[in-house]
Amino acid sequence: MTPALQNWATGVQRLVEEELALRLPAADASPARLHDAMRYAVLGGGKRVRPLLAFAAGELTSAPQVAVLQAACAVELIHAYSLVHDDLPMMDDDSLRRGKPTVHVEYDEATALLVGDALQSLAFEVLAAPQPQLDAARQRDMLSLLAHAAGSHGMAGGQAIDLASIGHMLTAPELEFMHIHKTGALIRAAVRLGAWCGTALDAEAERRLDHYAKCVGLAFQVVDDVLDAEAPTATLGKTAGKDAHDGKPTYVSVLGLPAAKELAEELRRDALDAVAPFGDMAKHLAELADYITHRSY
Ligand code: GRG
Questions:
Q1: What is the CB < 6 Å shell around ligand 1?
Q2: Contact criterion met (CB below 8 Å) for 41 and 98
Q3: CA of 186 to the centre of ligand 1 (A)
Q4: How far is CA 93 from CA 54, 90, 119, 202, 239, in A?
Q5: Which helix (H) or strand (E) holds 14?
Q6: What is the position in ligand 1's atom list of the atom closest to the CA of 49?
Q7: Which of 91, 222, 253, 264 has the fewest C-beta atoms lying within 10 Å of its C-beta?
Q8: Which atom of ligand 1 is nearest the CA belonging to 297?
Q9: Beta bridge partners of 101
Q10: Which domain holds residue 258?
Q11: What is the CA radius of gyration of the chain?
Q12: Average pLDDT, the chain
């Protein structure tokens, strides 16, 4: 991350952290074990990439910060829920996340299941909260967009394909279909929700922004696969090499490492081309595409 982007990102990350801490139930409120585990799952970790994308997209439409913050927190709560469930023994069975024991290891499996359920509900409660800066029809569309992105035609559907693919070799288009859903749908939603908090874009601008979001969502996953193959566990804060070990098809196993890296670069260039006509308004979107492609964890 460039120092200028880092500076901006730190401000957004702080806002998001404070808002999430306010929106999450107090750790000592009954049922305290569940509430404590929800806070453990969400706070004090994570790159907050989806909120950063929402804020960057909001700049494109001069969106009010309070509205973007609400949408960004909703997306991050869905993301946190997905990680808790993904780490469960019946799914990816992982014991390390964000450099800490996963929720089912720190607490127990039943609590982890409920943490995911409750975080998903909280996400929609947060997004549906009265927001004077948004008209009701727009807010309803945003709820619908997030529900679709998280559901069986989006993230949960992608996860189902992922689980069914273990031990199978997928073609590159099949792998892309899986990741456009599993990882891409929520990233795409983050970008669109951020933009929808401001003045409406025309159809061509909306199409360009969506193309950017699709490219960045896929690049994020390609880079995740490259890092899984190359980076050490201590850097990643999660178990490195796990996908290959579990017999999961990845961009590295399907394309090979050099071609996977080249694909990430192509997607980055495509994303940058898509937002270039927006000029300086898309400065942070462009810088985030660079960061997502070149990140080290
Ligand atoms: C359980 C319905 C359900 C879905 C799970 C997103 C997902 C679907 C599983 C996560 C598995 C995984 C490691 C996917 C690779 C890409 C990804 C989403 C990585 C984690 O996101 P980051 O890097 O995490 O943004 P932080 O910790 O920074 O928030």
A1: 46-47, 49, 79, 82-83, 85-86, 98, 155-156, 159, 182-183, 221, 224
A2: no
A3: 10
A4: 30, 6, 20, 44, 10
A5: helix 3-23
A6: 25
A7: 91
A8: 23
A9: 96
A10: 3-294
A11: 18
A12: 94
Give pLDDT tens digits for 110-150: 999 999 999 999 999 999 999 999 999 999 999 999 999 99
CB atoms within 10 A of CB 124: 16
For the stretch 160-186, pLDDT in tens is 999 998 888 888 899 999 999 999 999
Contact 153, 181 (CB under 8 A): yes
Kindly report the number of other CB atoms within 10 A of residue 113's CB atom. Answer: 16
CATH code of the domain covering residue 260 = 1.10.600.10
CA of 80 to the centre of ligand 1 (A): 8
Give the count of domains, the chain: 1
Distances (CA, A) of 287 to 19, 87, 169: 24, 30, 34
Nearest ligand 1 atom, CA 80: 29
Return phi, psi of residue 249, to 5°: -65, 135
How sure is the predictor about 81, in pLDDT bands with cuts at 50, 70 and 90? very high
Task: Output the CA 215–ligand 1 centroid distance in Å.
Answer: 17
**CA 82 to centroid of ligand 1, rounded, Å:** 7
Residue 280 Cα to ligand 1 midpoint, Å, equals 30
Is the pTM here over 0.90, yes or no? Answer: yes
